[in-house]
Design goal:
single chain; 696 residues; alpha+beta; 5-stranded mixed β-sheet; 21 strands; 16% strand
Length: 696
C-alpha cells in the first residue's frame, strides 16, 4: 500500500477503496462467499486467502503457508454464521486485516495471529486451543489484541483494553501491528455505523492509534487512518481538500517533467536510482494549503528517489543541489539523525527554471520499506539472540536491545504502572502520545535518555532515577549550572544533582515544568502524600544571615613598613604560601593581595607603589571561602559540621537569600595550618547540595 496514494474522487464513504496502484480491488463479498463453499483440499490454500498468500510470498518467497491454511480454517469455521454490520460474512474482516499486514511485509507468525485475532473474543475458541494448535507466540499475540470483558470493567473497558495491548506490545510489538491493521479495516467500513459512533471511534483513532502508528513508523497505515478520520471529524475541510485535488487533476502537473529532468541528471552522473512521483494524501494537502495558502501544481506531490546504498543518497543530494537551485530551508538529514520511529531519509527541495518548487525525498530501498511499514518491516525481532556487544550496550543504556522497544514505549510502560485509575491512564496516554517529537540527551555517566521535545531537567531526573528524583536539587547542562525548570535540547549533556536528605522533595511548581507522564504522576503522588511539603517556597527576600565567631585576630602577614597595620584583602583572601604584595591605603594601613589579584593591576595602573610583604613563620592563617549550593534543609548545619571536622574555626559566616533554589555562603575561617586549605575545600564540596567552593 502506498502511504500517499490519492484518489481525487474519493468521498468519505468511498475512502476504504484507497489502494496501491496496480493491485486489483478485492471483492470482500465474493471472498466471503468463497469462504463458505466448503472444505478445501489439504494440498492447497483456500481460494479466499489466495490474495494473502500472493502478497506474503512477494515479501517472503520461502514462507511456509501451511500455518496460514490451518489458521484460516479455524477462523472460518469458528466465525461461520457471524455477519458484519455491513452484511458481509465476518471472516472477511480477519482476511482483510491479514491482507493489509501481508502487503506491508509481515512475517508468517503475525499473519497467523491476525487471522485468529477475533476468535477468542467473538467465538468459542479458547486461548488454550490457540496455544495447543499454534504455539505460545501466536497465543500471546492473540491474547494481546483481545479486548477485556466489558461486563467486568464497564466504562473502563476501553482504557483497560488499550493498557493491556500496550503492555503486551512492550513484549511483542506485533500485537500493536495487528491492532493498527484491525482499526484501519474497521475505519474503511465505518459508514454503516451511526454518525455519533463514527465520531467516537474516529476520535479514539486520532488521539491514540494514529500517534501509535506514527511512533511505530507504520506510515502506510498512519496516512490512510488520517484521511479516514479527517473525512469523519472535519467533513467541510475534507470536501474543500477533495475539491482542490479534483481541480488539480484536470490541470497540467509539472512533477512528471521535473522527475524526467532528475532522472537525466542522475543518469549522467552514473547514479542508479528510481525516481517516482508520490501524490500527497488528503491530510498532507490540507496542511500544505494551510501553510502556503494558494497551492501550486507541484504542491500536490513529491519526488521520491530510491537508491541502493546510504552513500548514494548523499551523491543524489549533491547532484540535485549542483544542477538545480536548492531551497536550503527545506533540507533535513534524517539519515545521520534518524527520527525516533526509525525513519531515515534525506529531505530537500529545489526550484526549477520554470519557477516550480519540487520537494524531494531520497532514501535507500531498505529505508523506504521501513518508512512505509515501520516495525512491521523488522519481522520477528526475537529470532536471533543478541550479540555480547549488543547486550553490553543494552546494559550501559538500560535500554532493551530489541529495536521495536524504543525509549518512548519503555517510558509509557513504566508510568502506566503508577496510574491505576483508568481515567488517569486514558488522559495521560493521550497527552503522552500528543508529543510528536523526541529528543536524546546524554547522561553524565555516558548513557542516554530519550525524552519528548520540550522536556525539562525534572523529566530527565525522573527518567533516570525514578522516585529517587524527589531529592533532585539541581542540574548541570553541558557543564553549566542550571535550574531544574530548564528545557533540554537534542544532544544536551545533563548531570543531575541529588540531595541525600530523606526530607527533600519536589514542590508544586515542578508540575508546571514536567512534560512526561512519569514525572507528573510521581510529583503529584509525592505532593498528595506530603501535603505540608518538605520545601516551603521562599517568601520575600530576607536579609543575609550572619554568624560571628568569638575571635577576631588578624592574619600572619608582615609588611616591610615599621609599625604598619596589616590587613588581608577580602577580594582575594591570601594565605601562606601565596605570593603577595601590599599597598598602603587610607589611614596608613597596608592591604595584602595575591600577586594575581585584579586589584594589584589596578593599583599599579594608578601609580601606587607596592610594599614588600612576607609571611610569619607561624602556620595558621585566615581565609574567606565562598560555597555555592542548592537550598535544602540543614545545609548550613552540615557545612559547619564539615568545617569543624577539619579542625577549622569559623570567624564569620554569611548566607545570602536563595535565588532559584541556589544559595551562596561566605565563610571567614581561621586555619591552624595553611596546608590544610585544599582538604578543607574538598570536605566542603563533598557536602550534599554543594556544587562549588572557591576562595573569595
Amino acid at each position: 500500500m502506498s502511504a500517499e496514494a490519492t484518489n481525487p474522487e474519493a468521498r468519505p464513504e468511498a475512502l476504504p477503496e484507497l489502494r496501491r496502484r496496480g493491485r486489483t480491488r478485492l471483492d470482500l463479498r465474493r471472498l466471503g462467499r468463497a469462504a463458505l463453499l466448503g472444505p478445501t483440499p489439504r494440498d492447497r490454500l483456500p481460494d479466499a486467502i489466495g490474495h494473502v498468500a500472493e502478497a506474503h510470498r512477494a515479501h517472503h518467497p520461502d514462507a511456509d503457508l501451511s500455518l496460514l491454511r490451518r489458521a484460516y480454517l479455524l477462523a472460518e469455521t469458528s466465525h461461520r454464521g457471524q455477519m458484519r454490520k455491513s452484511g458481509e460474512p465476518y471472516i472477511t474482516h480477519p482476511l482483510a486485516v491479514t491482507l493489509i499486514l501481508a502487503e506491508l511485509g509481515a512475517e508468517t507468525t503475525t499473519l497467523t495471529a491476525s487471522l485468529l485475532h477475533d476468535t477468542v473474543e467473538d467465538t468459542d475458541v479458547t486461548l488454550d486451543q490457540v496455544r495447543e494448535e499454534f504455539g505460545d507466540e501466536v497465543c500471546f499475540i492473540v491474547d494481546g489484541v483481545t479486548k477485556v470483558e466489558k461486563i467486568d470493567y464497564g466504562a473502563a473497558a476501553e482504557p483497560e483494553t488499550f493498557r493491556k495491548m500496550l503492555v503486551a506490545t512492550g513484549n511483542d510489538v506485533r500485537v500493536m501491528s495487528i491492532k493498527l491493521a484491525d482499526r484501519l479495516h474497521n475505519m474503511r467500513t465505518l459508514g454503516v455505523m451511526r454518525p455519533e459512533k463514527q465520531a467516537r471511534i474516529a476520535k479514539v483513532t486520532r488521539d491514540v492509534l494514529i500517534p501509535l502508528a506514527e511512533r511505530l513508523g507504520v506510515q502506510a497505515l498512519k496516512t490512510e487512518l488520517e484521511d479516514l478520520v479527517f473525512a469523519i471529524l472535519h467533513p467541510e475541510e475534507y470536501e474543500h481538500t477533495r475539491a482542490l485535488i479534483a481541480a488539480h487533476a484536470g490541470e497540467r502537473d509539472p512533477l512528471p517533467a521535473i522527475a524526467d529532468s532528475v532522472r537525466a541528471v542522475l543518469r549522467d552522473a552514473g547514479i542508479a536510482a528510481e525516481v517516482v512521483v508520490r501524490p500527497r494524501h488528503f491530510v498532507s494537502v490540507h496542511r500544505i494549503s494551510l501553510k502556503r495558502g494558494e497551492l501550486r501544481g507541484s504542491d500536490f506531490g513529491r519526488l521520491l528517489v530510491l537508491v541502493g546504498e546510504n552513500a548514494d543518497c548523499y551523491a543524489v543530494l549533491g547532484e540535485l543541489h549542483t544542477c538545480f537551485t536548492p531551497v536550503i530551508s527545506e533540507f533535513k538529514d534524517f539519515i545521520a539523525t534518524p527520527k525516533f520511529n526509525l525513519y531515515q531519509s534525506l529531505h530537500t527541495a529545489f526550484a526549477t527554471p520554470e519557477g516550480s518548487v519540487a520537494e524531494v525525498i531520497v532514501r535507500t530501498r531498505q529505508m523506504h520499506r521501513v518508512a512505509e511499514a515501520g516495525v512491521v518491516a523488522l519481522g520477528n525481532p526475537y529470532t536471533a539472540p543478541p550479540s555480547a556487544e549488543q547486550l553490553a550496550a543494552a546494559d550501559r543504556d538500560e535500554e532493551r536491545v530489541d529495536p521495536t522497544r524504543p525509549g518512548w514505549l519503555s517510558r509509557l510502560l513504566d508510568w502506566q504502572q503508577s496510574a491505576p485509575d483508568p481515567d488517569t491512564f486514558w488522559d495521560v496516554l493521550r497527552s503522552e502520545l500528543a508529543q510528536d517529537r523526541e529528543i536524546t540527551v546524554f547522561r553524565a555517566d555516558g548513557g542516554t535518555l530519550g525524552l519528548p521535545a520540550g522536556a525539562s531537567c525534572i523529566d530527565a531526573a525522573y527518567a533516570q532515577y525514578g522516585e529517587a528524583a524527589h531529592g533532585c536539587i539541581g542540574a548541570r547542562v553541558n557543564g553549566r549550572l542550571t535550574s531544574l525548570s530548564s528545557r533540554l535540547s537534542d544532544g544536551d549533556t545533563v548531570q543531575l544533582l541529588l540531595a541525600h536528605d530523606a526530607s527533600s522533595g519536589p514542590t508544586a511548581d515542578w508540575l508546571e515544568h514536567a512534560r512526561t507522564p512519569a514525572a507528573r504522576i510521581a510529583v503529584s503522588s509525592w505532593l498528595e502524600a506530603h501535603p505540608d511539603g518538605a520545601r516551603p517556597a521562599a517568601a520575600a527576600p530576607r536579609p543575609p544571615l550572619s554568624v560571628i565567631g568569638l575571635r577576631s585576630g588578624g592574619g600572619n602577614a608582615v609588611a616591610d613598613l615599621p609599625d604598619a597595620t596589616v590587613r588581608l584583602a577580602g577580594c582575594c583572601t591570601p594565605v601562606p604560601p601565596d605570593a603577595v604584595e601590599g599597598f598602603v591605603v587610607r589611614g596608613g594601613a597596608v592591604t595584602v593581595h595575591r600577586v594575581h589579584c585584579a586589584t594589584v593591576a589596578q593599583m599599579r595602573a594608578v601609580g601606587r607603589t607596592p610594599v614588600a610583604v612576607h609571611w610569619r613563620a607561624t602556620a595558621d592563617c585566615r581565609v574567606t571561602l565562598l560555597a555555592e549550593s542548592f537550598g535544602r534543609p540543614h545545609l548550613l548545619a552540615d557545612l559547619t559540621e564539615a568545617i569543624a571536622r577539619e579542625g577549622v574555626e569559623v570567624v564569620s559566616a554569611t548566607v545570602e537569600p536563595p535565588v532559584e533554589q541556589r544559595v551562596r555562603h561566605s565563610y571567614t575561617l581561621q586555619l591552624p595550618d595553611a596546608t590544610g586549605l585544599p582538604a578543607l575545600m574538598r570536605a566542603m564540596r563533598d557536602v550534599p547540595g554543594v556544587y562549588d567552593v572557591s576562595r573569595a
